[in-house]
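I hope you will forgive my troubling you with a question about protein structure. I should value your view on which stretches of the chain appear to form regular backbone elements. Here, with my thanks, is the record as I have it:
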Amino acid sequence: MPKEKKIVVDASVVLAVILDEPEKPALIAETEGATLLAPGCLSWEVGNAFSAILKRKRMDFESVSKGLAIFDMIPVQEMEVSLGDALALCNQHEIYAYDAYYLQLAKRSSLPLLTLDRRMVEVAQQENIQVKGIK
């Protein structure tokens, strides 16, 4: 019986899919059939990104609302993270806590991380966290 495929995804991945970015087809292909995991901050990061989009007038509220509806359809399982372990990563690598939450979850669970954030890829490699690439 094949092992269930699980991947930690960050906000950059989710937003690229919602906003129909060029990476979307590759991201969907990479995550097809997988259980997607993320720390609980994912929804707040998506909300913050949409607030910035509204503030910069890149989209109107109706379009943002459609984007949130798409977000609600993406099945992401929220997982707890250790704040202490995440802050240790922040201290060691000089990164923001939000990035450390995803990294800590991937490290603790021994699961690959899917991100479009180059700095997170660098830190993941330094921490021996498997990073999923997109073609």
